[in-house]
Description:
By secondary structure, this protein is α+β, with helices and mostly antiparallel strands. It has helices at about 5-15, 25-30, 65-85, 100-105, 120-135, 135-140, 150-160, 165-175, and strands spanning about 35-40, 45-55, 55-60, 90-95. The protein contains eight helices and four strands.
Amino acid sequence: MRPEAIESKASELRHAVGTLKAPIALNRIASHLGTEINQQTFEDVVSGVLLIRGNERHIMVNKTHHPNRQRFTIAHELGHLVLHHDSGDRLFIDTHLRTYQRIGSANADVYRKPGSSTTPAEEMEANHFASALLMPRELLLSMTSGRDFWDELEVTALAAEFAVSEQAMTIRLRQLEVIDSTI
């Protein structure tokens, strides 16, 4: 799926739910999609799981991970639900990877997890969806004017406003060409 289409789907969902300010209310979005979110204890390498069985939809997130990491994982699993669920039962397992690998172009093998029904392309699409959902283009761009991103405290402050990691914010700012790869 093209990045513009993913951005559009994330925007449509936020507008349908009415969560347009940072930080984005993921619980409202999940509820709108009929999805229950639970915290679970997993091995550290597992960030979260989306289980679809009939009409039941469950996102289970690793409760030992940082709250910002949990938010990205929830948004990622919602991405699978919105972008990749057509019919039938499915299991999506999200392993804990560095954010730059998760959003960027990681080796395809990095996404292969026994039991998961996803492809590397689907994982990258879900990552893009998570970024677009948590850090909406229009909202983020409206908040970047006048900021000096050579000062890392600016990225830290912006990340805190959106309740995401500094790394996720930096990647999103690069994705939107607010900053270049030298920062």
